[in-house]
Design brief:
By secondary structure, this protein is α+β, with helices and mostly antiparallel strands. The protein has one domain. It has a two-stranded antiparallel ribbon with strand order 1-4. It has a two-stranded antiparallel sheet with strand order 2-3. Helix 1 packs antiparallel against helix 2. The two termini are 39 Å apart. The mean pLDDT is 88.
Length: 89
């Protein structure tokens, strides 16, 4: 659940949260201006943040090229997590 929140929801909603915090601070500390909510701009900014985060995770993780994946297995009463074996030269 935490991974879902940090990888997908937080990057998308960050521009909305920042904008609403800014509006709240401006109203609290004396701005008399009427604030409009530019939903299309916030949605676009959130989408761009989400795509940037997904691109970062796609390009920064993973195993080296040519490595072999060993799936999880049950050994001696415990589960050994899946892992990658280094490539053979």
């Amino acid at each position: 659940m935490t991974s879902l929140l940090l990888r997908y929801l937080l990057p998308f909603f960050a521009p909305f949260l920042g904008y609403f915090a800014w509006v709240w601070l401006m109203r609290r500390f004396g701005s008399e201006r009427e604030w409009t909510h530019p939903w299309h701009v916030l949605f676009l900014a959130g989408t761009l943040c989400l795509l940037a985060m997904l691109g970062f995770f796609a390009l920064s993780g993973g195993a080296p090229a040519g490595s072999t994946y060993v799936p999880p297995e049950y050994t001696d009463g415990r589960i050994v997590p899946g892992h990658y074996l280094p490539p053979k030269d």
